Amino acid sequence: METSLEIVVRPTEIDVNGHVNNAKFVEYLEWGREEWYEHNGLPYDRLDALGAQTVTVNVNVNYRKECRQGDRLIVVTRPGRLGRTSFALHQEVRKKDGTLAADAVITLVTIDPSARKPRPVPAELAAALSADDTPSGE
């Protein structure tokens, strides 16, 4: 299931070049993932109760257009690939007018909180990742 989170670029997120610092985009994407988990009934405590935590192992970001202070942005998050112990989320940061500012694929691994080793993706999380509400062909 796809989620959207609207944010506003704050003055503290601007770098010496007068636009959003690249590291802040990674933070925006994290906020979008947290929104996705919450929307799907999988906040941290629920995952923990299922004996799982998710750990980001790869962040692949394409920066497309600069964003400036005061811009309203929408962080879109949707499921991607689902493996046995890992999965991917596709994310976009769009300006309010729809212009693509950044897109990313984030790969996460599900781990056992005690053993700190990979474990199979819990059924509830797999179901949320498998929910198909995207248009065909994407």
UniProtKB/TrEMBL annotation:
Transmembrane annotation, as ranges: none
Enzyme category, top tier: hydrolase
Taxonomic lineage of the native organism: Bacteria, Pseudomonadati, Planctomycetota, Planctomycetia, Isosphaerales
Gene3D superfamilies: Hotdog Thioesterase
Pfam families on file: 4HBT_2
CDD domains to which the protein is assigned, alphabetical: 4HBT
Gene name of the encoded protein: fadM
Cross-referenced InterPro entries: 4-hydroxybenzoyl-CoA_TE, HotDog_dom_sf, YbgC/YbaW
Family: Belongs to the 4-hydroxybenzoyl-CoA thioesterase family.
Keyword Iron-sulfur part of the UniProt annotation: no
Protein name in the entry: Long-chain acyl-CoA thioesterase FadM
EC number(s) from the headed UniProt entry: 3.1.2.-
UniProt key word tRNA-binding: no
Keywords: Hydrolase
GO MF annotation, one: fatty acyl-CoA hydrolase activity
